[in-house]
Design goal:
By secondary structure, this protein is of the alpha/beta class. The protein has a single domain, classed as Glutaredoxin, CATH 3.40.30.10. It is built from five helices and five strands. The N terminus is likely disordered.
């Protein structure tokens, strides 16, 4: 009986911690720029004026479609921060909060998050879904964005 009570107590505590995002940590804002629909149109792609992809940026980009409540999004946030520092001057990493920017989430059909858009300087962007490990980001930076460290 005592063992069952301890197990139930631990289970309840786990549920409370997960609901309060204690395990996932607090939202990571960091140094990455959050894009709004307006800034997205000027810095990345004006989807209202153009029907064909035309990247507006000067550096290849990674765009993280995320939400503050998303555990996997919180897991990759520090990786993106590291990559921004490691590839400073070679790529730019943006974030789009899908709760605040529903229009952008719809335009890019982000039905699950995290969704990562890799935007090369030339050519078409490519979307990846899920919490990618750092090695996968680095491979995409090399293969898709055509950037070396």
């Amino acid at each position: 009986m005592k063992k069952t009570l301890i197990t139930i107590s631990l289970l309840v505590l786990s549920i409370v911690l997960v609901q309060n995002n204690t395990f996932a940590g607090e939202p990571v804002k960091g140094d990455l720029e959050n894009l709004t629909s307006a800034t997205f149109k000027t810095k990345v792609f004006d989807y209202e004026k153009n029907t064909e992809w035309k990247y507006e940026g000067e550096l290849p980009a990674i765009i993280d479609f995320y939400a503050d409540w998303c555990g996997p999004c919180k897991m990759i946030a520090p990786i993106l921060e590291e990559l921004q520092k490691e590839y400073e001057g070679k790529i730019i990493i943006y974030k789009v909060d899908v709760d605040d920017e529903k229009e952008l989430a719809q335009v890019f059909q982000t039905q699950s998050i995290p969704a990562i858009l890799f935007v090369p300087k030339e050519g078409q962007p490519q979307m990846a879904k899920g919490a990618l490990p750092k090695e996968t980001f680095e491979k995409a930076i090399t293969d898709v964005l055509k950037v070396k460290k």
